[in-house]
Amino acid sequence: MSNDSKDSMQSTTESKTPTVPIWIFCLLLLLLYVCGTYFDRNSGWFDDQVYAPFQNSDEVAAYQPVSGAAATKLEGQKVYSSICAACHGDSGQGKPGQAPPLAGSEWVNAADFKEAGEVPQLGLNGEVHVAGQDWNSQMAPMGAALSDSDLAAVLTYIRGSWGNKGADVSAADIKAMRTAIAGHPAINGETGLKAIK
Amino acid sequence: MNQNEKDYSAIDASCRVPLLPLLGGAALWLVVGLLLAIVASLNFHNPEMFANCPYLTYGRVQPAANDVILYGFAIPAALGVILWIFARLSETELALPIVPIAAANIWHLGVFIGLIGILVGDTTGFQWLEFPRPAAILIFVAFLLIAISAFATFGGRRERALQPAHWFLLAGLFWFPWIYSTANLFLIAWPVRGVAQAVVDWWYVNNLLFVWFGLVGLGVAFYLISKIAARPVQAVNYALFGFWTFILFAPWCGIPQGAPVPAWLPAASTVASVLVVIPLLALVKVFAQTVSGVNVQCKGGPYCYAKFGTVMFIVSTLMVISLGCPHFGRTAGETWYVPALQYLQIFGFLAIVVCGGIYELLSPIMGFELPFAKFVRFQHWFFMIGVAFLVVPLAIGGFEEGLKMKDPNVPFGDIRRATLPYLQVSTAGLLALLLGSLMLAANIFSMIIRWKLGLVKTVLTAVQAPLETQEVKS
Amino acid sequence: MKTGFSVFIAVFVAMAFSWSGFVLGPVRQLGTEGQTNILNSSDIYPNQRPGAATLGLQVYRSYGCAQCHTMQVGQEGVVCDVVLTAAGNKPAAVSNLIATLQLTGLTKEQADAVSGQITAAGGKTETHIVPTGADISRGWGMRHSVAEDFLWDNPVQLGSVRVGPDLSNVGMRYDVNWELMHLYSPVSEVKSSTMPPFHFLFIKERIDGTPSPEALPLQGDLAPPAGYEIVPTEDAKNLVAYLLSLRVNVPLYDAPFTTLAPATEKKK
């Protein structure tokens, strides 16, 4: 039988032919799991903007260098969220009975930034009409302790966010404004605000 | 038994005329390719040597050598062995015998045009695909023709059940036309834009040097080992499992880890390289079990070729896996480690297995013994030494280079100086391979000459015979 | 498997799988990419190479330069450096604080924390994004190579072995004269070079009255005989134009870094 033909091999199963054992399937599954984890962490999931050494699109976004206008906006956003958002809301929507909205406020969007800058610098107490609503509350001079550039940054941020279309404010502008109103007491309502020259 | 031998002698004889142009031409191209490779490596001994000759500048001679060895020797020789194996396994004569003859001529013409094209500067610029368009078309057509003959032979088989060798070799015949046409269409005919070209090229090189070589080389090796050991391939279910997982995972290797492409591409290659461990284990199991306990007096014959080649396949696959690992791949991925791997795949694995197949078939198809039987063993030794002296220094040199490149304080000039000795030693490896290839050519061509002389003698005898009887009569 | 047809099906499935992933996918994703913006600028990148450089790419291809030179800069990581831009109202406090902090080689979270601390103390900071890696330290590029860098090139020659240095950023390291001399005689510019000399890219011609302005300033053994000069061919000039157009020095979204005003160019 072994000499039947040197050449033709029987592919039919001999009684001794082992089946593929379980361990190789287990190993395959284990490797698939390991590889899946690796791919999940390192591939960026087919994003064409993610190149090694970055591992995902969030990391690429985080490491974008910020400069110029974008840097100022980021600064302003930081100041806003630490000082202003508590009362005026994260999106400048205001809080009923507490603080008027900044989004869509005619005081914020005015061509001249002065009124928008004087309020945080001096504080405002009393009646003021904002975006078709009457408000009567008290605001401490939250911006007085900020540096010129910080106050300028947060005003630029407010004037450029949430649909507001006010122009940027520079640190020099703020410095000039502060010199002009130095020593002024807290503003008394809308009339007091309009009275400042 | 006699009847069986007689059956095979008719089958073998039917292979003689179709296969000789393929195999003879391939042997010649191997010599030519190795000569070109030696010329290229002379640059590392004396860079000024070809300063005035644009046709022999390193950037042209090295790809010319690579492509001639690959497309001129490795692929056609493998196809010739496949045709014979199919005829043998089908137990029928080779079908459509004229087709491989025509195909061989078309093929060798294509390689010749390609070689000249590269040397005059008409290269495509893509690694392992440098042949210009006309050459590529000829090679593609020739491959299809040979595949047709192989399929026809396969279709006429007496025993309908498939052997493991069938799966691997059939898969190889399907695989090459797809990858070759894709590469040529997407890179040369209608080039894609930007770095996608590099991705297609890497895909093609991996599918050729790793997957196709693996399929064809393992198919031939399994056939040779089981034929010579006179036992069927063992652990057939492992072989099937290994075959399936190999063709599923291996084509996804090959993107370098440091490539300027989005991270998902090298990550996919890493995943594939790790998963390729599974088919490797399965195929090692098949090989080990088929070879173990076999009592074959090898003496440097085809059995030794097949065994050594398969072991080199295992080593080269481990190197592929290593390049898929992120840290190692970034360290060694742009060094001489990569060419070392490719040379191991071509010379260490495929060339050796195919030469084993050639030596197994030469004597049966010609009908007489090898004129230089001792050369078989010498060539085996020369190829082993050649592979060792070519691959090992480049791999070590490449790895060292990679380590030094990671340290920015090491000036590049120092790194270059340190790799030179390794490159110079590799020339010795090429020389050994050249000697081995000359032996192969000597055997094949002396057999061809002897056969042709025999034909001439037969013709002369037939022409002279009537005259003799007439003389006697008168 | 029982029949040839089932082998074909197996092959078809496996081949279609990898073909979709590594041919179809990248061609659709990378092959359809267009130009992109340079970070923090409205400039478009990349611009098409000037005409001579496009011809030079074909010379590069024809002589097989990619056999020895790669064009892919690698990057191992990215770090943040926090830089003080203004000391603010209390410079003494700020400088005391800075003395206790690590300002370079930070992750983004660490950098944000440090800059928060300094801002709280009254200073102003800027965070610089700095790519790290051996290639970048050698001056072979300012960031890793990305797909956009190769948008206009056909064929894309990334190379695979660094027998010679990486060329992605070579336009920032050398000038025309260095490149031409290096092509004619690499050893004259780089002592340990194994690059073959490309004499066939130059012509030896008789000096016609006044020497040509393009003649190479060759000395000693390299100099041509008296009355002759070595002049570059069109191919040589185009090749050099291509090499000098190779730069990896602009920040993009997928390869960000902070551009600093005149960066010191590091030596090779």
What does this structure look like?
The complex is a heterotrimer of chains A (197), B (474) and C (268). Chain A is mainly α and 197 residues long. Chain A has 8 helices and 3 strands, in the order αααααββααβα. Chain A has a 3-stranded mixed beta sheet. The model of chain A is unreliable at 1-15 (pLDDT under 50). Chain B is an all-alpha fold and 474 residues long. Helix content of chain B is 79%, strand content 0%. Chain B has helices at residues 2-42, 58-90, 98-120, 133-155, 164-189, 196-228, 236-249, 264-275, 277-291, 302-324, 326-332, 337-366, 373-405, 412-473. Chain B starts with a helix and ends with a helix. Chain C folds into 2 domains: 37-75 and 135-244, Cytochrome c-like domain (Cytochrome Bc1 Complex, Chain D, domain 2, Orthogonal Bundle), CATH 1.10.760.10; 77-132, no CATH class. Chain C contains 8 helices and 6 strands. In chain C, the strands form 3 sheets. In chain C, strands 1-2 form a two-stranded antiparallel ribbon. In chain C, helix 2 (51-62) crosses helix 8 (234-244). Chain C is flat, with a radius of gyration of 25 Å. The A-C interface holds A 46, 48-54, 60, 62-68, 70-71, 78, 147, 149 and C 25, 29-30, 33, 39-40, 75-78, 80, 88-89, 108, 119, 122, 124, 126-129, 133, 144, 146-147, 251, 253-259.
Stretches with pLDDT under 50, minimum 5 residues of chain C: 262-268
Structural category of chain C:
alpha+beta
Strand share of the residues of chain B? under 5%
Helix content of chain B: over 70%
The whole-number mean of residue pLDDT values of chain C reads 89
According to DSSP, the number of beta strands of chain C is 6
The major beta sheet of chain B can be summarized as:
none
- Examine the secondary-structure arrangement and name the CATH architecture of the largest domain in chain C: Orthogonal Bundle
